[in-house]
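Page 42, continued from yesterday. The earlier attempt failed because a stray header line got pasted into the input along with the sequence. Redoing it now with the clean sequence only.
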Amino acid sequence: MSIIKHGTHVVFLNSKTGEQKCVRLPRNSDVYIKPLSFQADSLIGQRFGQKYQVVKHKLVKIDESSPPLTEPVEHCGKTNEFIKDDGATQILSQNDIEEMKSKGITGDEIVKNLVENSTSFNVKTEFSKAKWLKKKINKHQPNIIVKKPSIRLFASSSVSKLRPDVLAKIINNANIWSGSKAIVVECKDDLLTSAVSQRVGLNGTVLQVFEQRLPHNMYCKWLDFSQEHLKALKYYPLKFLGKLNPNAEQEDLNKNGSSNCDDESIDQKHELGKRKREGKTVNFEDYKTVFEFLKTEKFDSLVISAFYDPFPVLELLWNSLRSSGNLVIRTEYLSVVLQCANFVNEKGCSELSVVDQWFREIQVLPGRTHPDMRMQTGGGFILSCTKICDGIYEHGSDMPVVSEPKEIPSVQVAEPME
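This time it went through. Structure tokens are written below.
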């Protein structure tokens, strides 16, 4: 396992609530993960993946060599029908528990005292004992697990808009490889951009089309990308994407009388993030170099994952995708996917597919295997295809080979002999 160094980011996972928080060490202030608060600067020099307890506002490493309180149980024929759960079976009161916590007694010792002072624990079934212990451990002994930031870890969090299986499906269908050039269109965050950039590496290029005032780069910072890696990332605003098609932009100007991109009130009204990141307006001159790069270069992959209609974006960026390039669109609406599928089918594509990524979590325990009660089953519709063009192309070229017409030799027909 790698070591936590000065200036790196770490992810704190609360075993009780499942909440995650990514911070950069050293951190002069306290780290707060509901309902715990602690100091984390002492973790520098430690390994990732270790478990800690919060004792007197400090992190104390848990000795994993000791046997756990809860162990796998086998099925038994006992029942709990004669146990009265009226609160009188526990001798220790809440004041006694709070007094033990104030003295600095660990949660493991508190749970052991609760077991010793419970009159009904020994008559419970083995399933009830394991469930009771798990509940008390989560209440009095919440563990803090220190993990290294990763794409899979961020995708597994409750705030992620993409599940790990959906993200893996997008990356696989987009055919992202080291050194390739890709366009990523997404909103809300940069999880997909970070995943593509991590796969592309230092020798490739990733161009993110963002929809708010500033580019999304939160996950790129949390993953501690190097400066050379961050230079491979390029950003371009969604509101200036119409400049790739000057004819359509001129039609909008004639129809509306003014440019929608320059109307700040309309931009704020249709901004999906609903959050003012900064009061700075987006200036096209700041992205003119990226615009020329987007206009002249051909990209290997085009990935679109957004909550708005992706069809206008697909129309503008279709010509930026090279021949044999891969297109992936992820959306939650089937009608939008079918519209995009008809468009790429008319333009020319192969291996066109539309799938609904369905996922279900199942708890696997002895005698207690069943699907989870609360889970997100639907991951949205994913369209994927490969762009094809008419004509003959040389390897690495996007221009068809123009072959000179060959002269057909004249055929002389011999006259029949008399």
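Notes: The CA atoms of residues 324 and 387 lie 5 Å apart.
Reminder to self: strip header lines before submitting.
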